[in-house]
Design a protein that fits this description.
Elements (H helix, E strand, L loop, with lengths): L5 H7 L3 H5 L13 H11 L3 E5 L5 H8 L3 E5 L3 H11 L21 E5 L7 H14 L5 E9 L2 H13 L3 H9 L3 E2 H8 L4 E7 L4 E8 L1
Parallel strand pairs: 1-2, 1-3, 3-4, 4-5
Antiparallel strand pairs: 4-7, 6-7
The protein binds S-adenosylmethionine.
S-adenosylmethionine (SAM) binds next to helix 1 and helix 4.
GO molecular function: S-adenosylmethionine-dependent methyltransferase activity
Family: Belongs to the methyltransferase superfamily. YrrT family.
Enzyme class: transferase
Amino acid sequence: MGREFLDLFQDWADSYDDTVTGHDVEYQAVFEHYDAILDAVAARAKGRVVEFGPGTGNLTKKLLENKLEVLPFEPSPEMREIGMQKLGDQVTFRDGDFLDFDLVGAVDSFVSSYAFHHLTDEEKGKAFEIYGKYLPRGGKIVWADTMFESDRHYQAAISAAIEKGYHNLADDLKREYYTTLDVFRSLLEPRGFTVTFDQVNAFVWIMEATKQ
Ligand SMILES: C[S@@+](CC[C@H](N)C(=O)[O-])C[C@H]1O[C@@H](n2cnc3c(N)ncnc32)[C@H](O)[C@@H]1O
């Protein structure tokens, strides 16, 4: 459950850091301001931080630089290996995912960048239910990910990608579980969270949910 897109990362792991620095033209707009986006997520995290889908460890590095305790859970062995090569002297990349992770003790923040769209909306709700049990009042979930203001915006992004001949991007937008802001609100508010959204490029928003 939730790990259905892992095969993609087996092939992508080695070139992933080239993609985020703009080498893949189809994904340039998705990764525009990547570094500043990760800085903004790291700045909102506090205390003991669980990170999901750290990939090659770019957000992990920023969290560590901010002197936070970080527990990164990454399901892809190829990604974990790269993360460990880069940061293994400071942190251990554990096998785990958004819904299945071994954790003892309280957590102040759950963070993730460019990864939560791998879960269906039903799985997203289950994930928020789990995190709510770990977080104290004031605890946070901070995600940076592609999301859309409405279905109309989502469909327009797919059409624009097709028009530009960006077929990999269009297929990705159609295949994975990108979600609208209203869906996030409907999954979080009944579970006792308040939520804010800030758009940071044409695709990516930072979602910050706070436990009440
Ligand atoms: C696009 S990469 C993002 C990597 C990194 N967070 C970043 O911002 O560059 C998506 C990551 O999510 C991981 N992933 C895929 N399915 C996942 C799941 N169900 N739970 C947690 N992580 C998952 C992938 O292995 C990959 O490392």
